[in-house]
Design a protein that fits this description.
By secondary structure, the protein is an alpha+beta fold. The chain is built from 9 helices and 11 strands.
């Protein structure tokens, strides 16, 4: 409102000046009252100039105060945000001393904000490990790497050894340098998240895989896996040598190419890739193998491939064939013996018949002799 009134008065003064100047131009003179008005107008113009200058200063001061308050509010919001993040944030000066750290950084590094303030990278409180569990040299600390290269670091895995009462934790570290207009580093911002659970899972998985690999590599059987397209992802076991293969030699190859001459085996594999477990005996070259196939399911129960084990049963098969052969021989021998016995029985029957016939003849002769003797 004040500004509008000020503008209205200014316009009114300008109009009055124009009128007086027109009169002075046409008549060539002004009366005393008009001259007095001109003098007053000049005084008003000077006052107007002073008021404008004052108004500008007041406006600048007000805007500055508003800007300062906005900046303070923003800094408060930023601090609150940083202290409530689940990400550790540490800001270093060019000499690596810490100028800021949030609450999460203190919790993860095992030091209070007061303990962290001013600490440099060389401080013995820091004990970092690389992924191989070896100490990280000072030059390879995240902040020193950024200072040396003047470039960001991304996804650096760091183990942090804290005091004796706290377990080792693993962090995923990122950071970048902040440069001034002369491309000089003014600060280094480091942020990190806790990946201990993930790292421990990876370690457990690695150890489990190593145990599994040791087991299958030393096994006399052949252990194999394929993806959903029938591409081998695992091929281990001493039994591979019997086929002239080495460990992992067929990884990356398709079962449908390798076993195209064994349609029965491919049919069983297709069924397994469709979710049906199966078992099959197959002869490859001069050897026999008993294969078990099981669908490989992911955590959602979807088939992502197959797992299998192949056992060399050549000796068993040969033994079974030998037993079968002996059984057939025995059966043939029994059959022959049976026929011989049947023939002997027939001969015996015939002999008995002859003997009985003779015995009857003898009896008849004896009867005739007896009758003749009675006469």
């Amino acid at each position: 409102m004040k500004k509008e009134a000020f503008n209205t008065a200014e316009n009114s003064i300008k109009s009055k000046v124009e009128q007086l100047l027109k009169k002075h131009t046409s008549n060539g003179s002004l009366d005393n009252s008009e001259m007095q008005i001109l003098d007053q107008i000049q005084d008003l113009e000077e006052l107007q100039s002073d008021l404008k200058h004052l108004d500008k200063n007041l406006t600048d001061n007000t805007e500055r105060k508003i800007a300062e308050q906005v900046l303070v509010d923003s800094e408060i919001k930023l601090c609150n945000l940083l202290n409530n993040l689940n990400i550790g944030v540490v800001v270093h000066a060019p000499d690596t001393s810490i100028t800021f750290s949030n609450s999460r950084a203190s919790a993860l590094l095992g030091l209070s904000k007061k303990q962290m303030a001013g600490k440099q990278a060389i401080d013995p409180a820091w004990k970092f490990l690389n992924e191989a569990n070896n100490p990280i040299p000072l030059n390879d600390y995240p902040v020193n790497r950024i200072i040396a290269s003047e470039t960001p670091i991304k996804n650096m895995v760091v183990g942090v050894i804290r005091d004796q009462t706290k377990p080792l934790i693993w962090l995923l570290v990122n950071g970048f340098p902040v440069l001034d207009t002369n491309n000089e580093i003014v600060e280094i911002v480091i942020n990190f998240v806790d990946i201990t659970e993930r790292k421990e899972s990876e370690i457990a998985l690695y150890e489990s895989e190593e145990k599994f690999k040791t087991l299958v590599t030393g096994s006399e059987e052949i252990i194999f896996m394929t993806d959903k397209n029938g591409i081998f992802t695992l091929s281990e076991g001493k039994g591979l040598s019997k086929l002239g293969l080495k460990s992992g030699e067929i990884v990356g190859k398709s079962v449908f190419d390798l076993y195209k001459d064994y349609p029965e085996m491919l049919d069983v594999m297709r069924k397994t890739l469709n979710g049906i477990a199966a078992e099959l005996d197959v002869k490859i070259a001069k050897m026999y193998f008993r294969n078990w196939y099981t669908p490989h399911l992911n955590t959602r129960g979807k088939v992502v491939g197959l797992m299998g084990m192949s056992v060399n049963i050549t000796e068993l098969k040969l033994a079974e064939e030998e037993i079968k052969k002996h059984r057939e021989q025995l059966e043939e021998l029994v059959k022959e013996r049976t026929m011989e016995l049947e023939n002997k029985n027939k001969e015996l029957d015939n002999a008995l018949k002859v003997f009985v016939g003779r015995e009857l003849t003898i009896k008849k002769l004896q009867e005739k002799v007896r009758l003749l003797g009675g006469e």
